[in-house]
Write a structure and sequence with these properties.
The structure holds two protein chains of two kinds. Chain A has one domain: MetI-like fold, CATH 1.10.3720.10. A two-stranded antiparallel ribbon of chain A has the order 1-2. Chain A has helices spanning about 5-50, 50-55, 70-100, 105-115, 120-140, 145-170, 175-185, 190-200, 200-215, 220-225, 245-255, 260-295; strands spanning about 60, 65. Chain A is an all-alpha fold. Chain B is α/β, with parallel strands linked by helices. Chain B has a single domain (about 1-245), classed as Rossmann fold (3-Layer(aba) Sandwich). Chain B has ten helices and ten strands. In chain B, the strands form two sheets. Chain B has a six-stranded mixed β-sheet, sandwiched between helices. In chain B, helix 7 (about 180-190) links the parallel strand 7 and strand 8. Chain B is globular and about 55 Å long. Classes of the chains: A mainly alpha, B alpha/beta. At the A-B interface, helix 7 and helix 8 of A face helix 2, helix 3 and helix 6 of B. The structure holds adenosine-5'-triphosphate and magnesium ion. Magnesium ion (MG) binds near residues 43 and 171 of chain B.
């Protein structure tokens, strides 16, 4: 090893490290810039609109009524319902695909399920309008375009991701856990539900979070099938009435709003709320996974 | 009295015959050791005794294995019940990624408690039985995977004896452990012997000599010799056995 060689190598190491650092920091920087922009455009809304107005039940920008509650609750209602539908179905499917299906069926099903994740949301929205909405209406709703229809479409959108990631999580559970369960005299299904699924818990939580990530931020499909009426979803039948989400509101109104107006800032304000909510959810998810890891119990 | 009687057992992984013509009797309240070189079928044999080989597809078995004079491969055998009666401790400690308490309570919870014992009592009895109670009694809610390997293996033993099986199969239970933990497990086996029937696979000749009453020597899927441990280690009948235990093996 002669000296010039060494310096040359040091230089290239230095160069590569610098490049990686630059790339890494610039992507963080971009995210930060977007966040700052969001802050700058969104914060004024909360000063310009009195609190009473903000927390009212009416969203009528034309009359300067900026009650965000119906939108917030609309988003929550639709997302929560979607989770309630998607999580048991997806986890059940993942367990079925992983544990009950013969290997060749799994090999066919898995890529098919993953392909479903690639369907554009407009297409799903269209299917929702033409196929799902009429069915919901037949179930007794005054119109087919309801919060429930939106929740169904959202659940459908997030399921491929949840199934696929949860199945991978189940797959990584060591055989020794199954053996231990079976050798204790547990039946196959007792072993699955009491050993394998709990052991894959953190992976399944990640799966749900990834699926949710797609659902919460989803705009297009939801806008097409929920009816977009900004009403407070407080009565029992709200699920089967039209509703409006925060994302749909931003998407629908941003195009026509005057730059710099209260309405404009308000839409960014909603974006800020959305951002905060997603951030909190991710934080919770990360902390549950992290806690598990620290105890040395991920696997 | 013989607890388990194996009659002319052949075992196949697909076309590969892993065990040929094995016959032996395993006595109650005794420790039986199985020794032999790697790949000779010791684990396979052990897993026949609680039908864990059923979980591997393409396997086939001929012959009879009688547990208390009942053929465990009979069509009407309840495999789940069999595995309750014949517990197993694996080579690598494999506690569930749950708390210590939940690990031990796993069996009683799925099988239901018998006797008038509360779950807490079962957990304490089992952990005491596995000589782990004093170390963990204040941390029962701790994650089992945080224990040392030796403690984990004793936890697995505690988990196994929680359901009071009649036979305990141990497949190289000390191979992942250091000498001190190994000694602890060996002492534990001696204390368990009065209430359980133990079959242990081991690679350590000394261990077999130390803990067992009976020893079987396996070689290439056959059982070359079976007899009282003392006899096998001092005056074996077969030349092969002698060369193996004296380390002259080729
Ligand atoms: N699942 C399996 N499928 C096919 N062959 C197997 C399987 N498990 C074991 N075998 C084969 O059966 C033979 C006996 O294996 P077994 O694990 O019983 O040996 P062993 O005596 O326990 O060895 P070791 O001391 O290394 O644990 C070996 O030749 C092995 O390759
Ligand atoms: Mg083995």
């Amino acid at each position: 090893m002669n000296p010039p060689d060494k310096t040359q190598r040091n230089w290239s190491t230095f160069f590569i490290e610098a490049l990686i650092r630059l790339l890494g920091f610039s992507s963080i920087g971009f995210v930060l810039l977007i966040f700052l922009f969001l802050l700058q455009e969104g914060i004024p809304a909360f000063f310009q609109v009195p609190l009473g107005n903000l927390l009212s039940e009416l969203w009528y920008p034309t009359f300067d009524l900026y009650g965000i509650l119906p939108l917030l609750l609309g988003s929550l209602l639709i997302t929560l319902t979607a989770i309630l539908i998607a999580v048991p179905l997806s986890v059940g499917t993942a367990v079925l695909v992983r544990e009950a299906a013969p290997p060749w069926v799994r090999e066919v099903l898995k890529p098919m399920i993953e392909a479903l994740a690639g369907i554009p949301s407009v297409v799903l929205g269209f299917l929702g309008m033409t196929l799902v909405a009429p069915i919901v209406q037949k179930l007794g709703a005054p119109t087919g375009l309801t919060a429930f229809t939106g929740a169904l479409i959202l659940a459908y959108m997030s399921m491929p991701t949840i199934i696929s990631v949860a199945e991978d999580a189940l797959d990584t559970v060591p055989k020794s856990y199954r053996d231990a369960g079976l050798s204790m005299g547990a039946t196959k299904w007792q072993t699955i539900w009491r050993v394998v699924v709990p052991a894959a818990r953190s992976g399944i939580v990640t799966a749900v979070m990834l699926g949710l990530g797609r659902a919460i931020g989803e705009t297009m499909a939801v806008m097409m099938v929920t009816g977009n009426a900004a009403r407070m979803p407080l009565s029992l039948d709200s699920l089967f009435r039209p509703a409006r989400t925060m994302t749909a509101t931003i998407a629908a109104e941003m195009g026509e709003v005057a730059h710099g107006s209260i309405h404009y800032h308000m839409l960014f304000g909603i974006g800020l709320i959305l951002f905060t909510l997603t951030f909190i959810i991710n934080l919770i998810a990360a902390s549950t996974i992290f806690k598990k890891r620290k105890k040395g119990g991920l696997r | 009295m013989s607890k388990i009687e194996v009659k002319n057992l052949n075992f196949f992984y697909g076309d590969f015959q892993a065990l040929t013509g094995i016959s032996l009797e395993i006595r109650d309240q005794h420790i039986t050791a199985l020794i032999g070189p790697s790949g000779c079928g010791k684990s396979t044999f052990l897993r026949c005794l609680n039908r864990m080989n059923d979980t591997i597809s393409g396997t086939r078995l001929e012959g009879k294995i009688l547990l208390d004079d009942q053929d465990i491969y009979d069509e009407d055998t309840d495999v789940v019940d069999l595995r309750r009666r014949v517990g197993m401790v694996f080579q690598r400690p494999n506690p569930f990624p749950k708390s210590i308490y939940d690990n031990v309570a796993f069996g009683p919870r799925i099988l239901g408690l018998h006797k008038e014992e509360s779950l807490d009592e079962v957990v304490e009895r089992s952990l005491r039985g596995a000589a782990l109670w004093n170390e963990v009694k204040d941390n029962l809610a701790q994650d089992a995977l945080g224990l040392s390997l030796g403690e984990q293996q004793r936890l697995c033993i505690a988990r196994t004896i929680a359901t009071e099986p009649e036979v305990i199969l141990m497949d190289e239970p000390c191979s992942a452990l250091d000498p001190i933990a190994t000694l602890e497990i060996e002492e534990l086996m001696q204390s368990l012997k009065s209430s359980y029937n133990i079959v242990i696979v081991t690679h350590s000749m000394q261990q077999a000599a130390r803990v067992s009453d009976w020893t079987g020597f396996f070689w290439l899927g056959e059982m070359v010799e079976f007899g009282a441990t003392e006899k096998i280690f001092t005056n074996p009948d077969k030349e092969k056995t002698e060369s193996y235990i004296t380390g002259r093996f080729g």
